[in-house]
Amino acid sequence: LFVILLVFCGYSLTLPGASEGLNYLFNPDFSKIDGSVVLAAMGQAFFSLSIGLGILITYGSYIKRNVNLPKTALTVAILDALVAILAGVMIFPIMSSFGISPTQGPDLIFVTLPNVFKHMLMPNLWAIMFFVFAGVAALTSTISLLEVAIAYISEEFKMGRKKASLVILGIVAVLSVLSSLSFSTLS
Questions:
Q1: What is the DSSP string of 115-163?
Q2: 20 to 30 A Cα–Cα from 115, which one of 83, 100, 164, 170?
C-alpha cells in the first residue's frame, strides 16, 4: 500500500499546477483555525490512531513485556503522520491540476478521482490500484475494529477465535442489513 501511495504521489507531482496544490497543503491560513477546526483535527487523530474505540487497549494486551512502548508509540505516530502527509501530497496537486475544489469531502474519492484517472496513462490500472489501496485500508481498519468484540467474545464465553469471529460476523451482517433497509423498506 505504501508503494502504491508513493507512486500516486510521484504522478501527482508531475502534473501541471502541482505546485499550487502543494502550496495549498503546506501553507495553511491560520486565521481560519477556530474551535471547530481543532475538534475536527482531534477527531481525525482519534480516528486514524483508533484511540477512541478501545482498539489500542485490545492490541496493547497482546504486546510482549520486552517491547519498548515509548519507541513503538513514537513509530506509530510518525508513520501515521507520514501517511497522512503523503496522502495530501497525492490529493492536493491532483485537485489543483484538474481544478477540483478541496471541500468536496467524500465525493472526492468516489466521483472526482475516477474522472482524474481518465486523464492518466492506463486509467483502468490506476483506478484499480487506487480502489484496491482504499479497500485494503478500509478492510484493515475494519479488522482492527472487530478485534475488540472478538477478543471480548472469545475470553468471556471461552470460545475459539474462529467461532467468535463467525458470531461477530453474523451480528454485524444482521445489523448491516437492518441499517441498509432503514433507507428503504424499514424507513
A1: HHHTTSSSHHHHHHHHHHHHHHHHHHHHHHHHHHHHHHHHHHTT--HHH
A2: 83
